[in-house]
Amino acid sequence: MSKGVLFVISGPSGTGKGTVCKELLANDDNNLFLSISSTTREKRAGETEGETYNYTTADKFKSMIENNEMLEYAVYSGNYYGTPKKTVEKMLAEGRNVILEIEPQGALKVKSILPDAVLIFIIPPSMAELKKRLVERNRETDEQIAARLEAAKWEMEQAQKYNCIVVNDELDACVGEIEEIMRGNVQKRAMVDKLLHEKY
Amino acid sequence: MSKGVLFVISGPSGTGKGTVCKELLANDDNNLFLSISSTTREKRAGETEGETYNYTTADKFKSMIENNEMLEYAVYSGNYYGTPKKTVEKMLAEGRNVILEIEPQGALKVKSILPDAVLIFIIPPSMAELKKRLVERNRETDEQIAARLEAAKWEMEQAQKYNCIVVNDELDACVGEIEEIMRGNVQKRAMVDKLLHEKY
Question: Do A116 and B160 touch (CB under 8 A)?
């Protein structure tokens, strides 16, 4: 059995990566499993423990960092967010494809630890559209949105380090393109695996 | 003007990467420029200085290594082979897409120095076919071919670290797939570049 493939979906805040991941996970043909992040931030209304996040304390989170048990982690607005290594490695070993939806900072960290990961960077069709989406989301102040847009610029400068860049203009097209990338990668890795075990 | 994109074509010996690169370079639509490697090995019949390789002495080559002027280099059968950094960086800055055809060892070194590089790994359709091609090439002893095949296994284990894997079964199809990858990357990078310069 081939090892699973780790797909990391990332991109600036407001590009719709959450929605894209939901669509990808909803399609059983993708054979995808979501790695749930851990966080120290408080649970918001409508969120579910073990589905949206695994909620934990700052003490427990810090001890996991110290014990080198986090694949990646980052701090936003004073809260920790991260991915426990053990869960991901177990799923990959079982031949399941894993999807991680994380911020660009974390995505590049994952690639440095697991160079086999396929990093997919989602970009908006335009900065104006990204701004519009952040405003319409109505979750942040103008200052926070301005900071998000500034961060987006830095993040997009890192896009070239990703395996693939996909534009999220029309959701279905974006999801379809990512599914094609996923199928291609799974197929090609299976071929390499077959070559590695071939007698000649 | 956008910076050019660096494409690195690599794969085990005998996968036909040389022929693939020739085809890619022959198509003007690809807007591709070949970076000529430097080597300390002697010129073979039919080879041309500045086209096949830039031939140099071991002393000069070593001094370029010491001065950190090589993007990558490797030693095969006692001879040095490598890519001078300056030429590649100059071409990229001028907006030209550059193609490097190098051994897998060197390809991963290039990626560590220039993480924007797009690494394309060419695999054979089967190990049996790879063996057949190496035998038909009629350049090496049975022992050398056996060593090539062993090396191919190690190299293919690294394939997952590349941006893309392409099978060279039928030459035209392989070249077409790589051209599509190249077009996609050039187009996506131009889009990111546009986003980075957009006022919002």
Answer: yes
pLDDT at A160 over 80: yes
CATH assignment of B6-35+96-196, among 3.90.1530.10, 3.10.28.20, 3.40.50.720, 3.40.50.300: 3.40.50.300
Predicted local distance difference test score (pLDDT) of residue A2: 81
Cβ-defined contact of A195 to B165 (cutoff 8 Å):
no
Which spans in B27-103 are helix H?
58-66, 85-93
Kindly state the helix (H) or strand (E) to which residue A140 belongs, with its residue range. none
ipTM value, please give it.
Answer: 0.81
Q: Which among B127, B164, B165 is the nearest to A200, CB-wise?
A: B127
Q: How many helices (H) and strands (E) does chain B have?
A: 7, 9
> Where do the structural domains in chain A lie, given as residue ranges?
6-35+96-196
Assess contact for B114 and B5: CB atoms under 8 A: no
Token pair 């960290």: residue: A109
Record the pTM.
0.85
> Cβ of B127 and A198 within 8 Å?
yes
Closest partner residue to B165 (CB to CB) among A126, A192, A198 is A192
Could you say which residues of chain B have pLDDT below 70? none
Are B177 and B122 within 8 A, CB to CB? no
C-alpha distance from B35 to closest chain A C-alpha (Å): 21
pLDDT digits over B64-98, tens only?
999 989 998 888 889 999 989 988 998 899 989 99
- The pLDDT, as a whole number, for residue A118 is 96
Does B195 contact A127 at a Cβ distance shorter than 8 Å? yes
